[in-house]
Design a protein that fits this description.
By secondary structure, this protein is an alpha/beta fold. The chain has 11 helices and 8 strands. The protein has an 8-stranded mixed sheet. It binds adenosine monophosphate, fe (iii) ion (2 copies) and zinc ion.
Length: about 290
Amino acid sequence: MNYLFNKKSNRTKYADLHLHTDQSDGKLSPEKVVAEANRAGLSAIAITDHDMLDGIEPALSAGKKYNVEVISGLELSAEHNSEEIHILGYFINWKNKRLKERLCEFRELRYSRALKIIDKLRKMGVSIELSDIIDQTETSYIGRPHLAAALVQNGYADSISEAFQRFLGNHAPAYMPKDAFLPSEAIEMILEADGIPVLAHPGVSKNNILDELIDNGLMGIEAFHPYHSIPLSDYYCDIAHKRNLLITGGSDFHGFENNKNALGLIRLPYEYVEHLKAVVNERQIKLNLKINN
Ligand code: AMP
Ligand code: FE
Ligand code: FE
Ligand code: ZN
């Protein structure tokens, strides 16, 4: 099951650094995610909603209540050669004005894309309404999972995966590409908002642009993810050591599913969180020196 957990050690603190809430395409509210993390015995978690920051503040409050350390984060969708690349940002300043503005523009583009998909579906004789989706979600982020849920609800598919297969998937008839950031832009946005940019689930995307990403300022790699086999995780850890990258890991929990992405499935030893924090502290020290000089 969990290779990190199974490694013999007397560690007591673990983290799951990749969790989604209902502020993007997850099912549970930020507070419920934190409560679940507490139940799973995790000491620290990161909230990493897709292109959204609104889950962070409620999760931080819940963290105090449930005694779980909550790290501010997000997962930006970028694209390279028509393949998606996700960049995680940790310890992000979620109040950064420029980041907020850019994410807002991005959501507006997602909204118009959803309208276009609905139009394509209508032409196929499949009728779902955007208003139904908006009424049922907690978020202004509209992704294909929301449209898939509406298709299931309206009887056009038996499951989310069938909805993707028949209508919404990358090779299905109602597919619409979305506007995405360039990986370099995503990294830059995270750095500008004081975050630590980390390549998400590198084993999932087919791109091989690690060198380019490192040149752009990438600082870490998500070596541990449910879709990575043990040898693949080891491989990414090796790369991280060779390239002086931070190592992270998380379950990519969305709250629907399947145990594939169960919260706490990845139990990252807390020392990896300490490495991230050391970077944050180092930056702070440099900033203080600059201010004092
Ligand atoms: P979007 O960003 O709107 O294009 O939606 C992408 C999201 O859809 C991913 O993050 C997944 O959560 C989900 N997704 C993509 N493909 C599938 C699939 N075949 N089955 C179920 N969910 C999928
Ligand atoms: Fe998702
Ligand atoms: Fe992702
Ligand atoms: Zn994710």
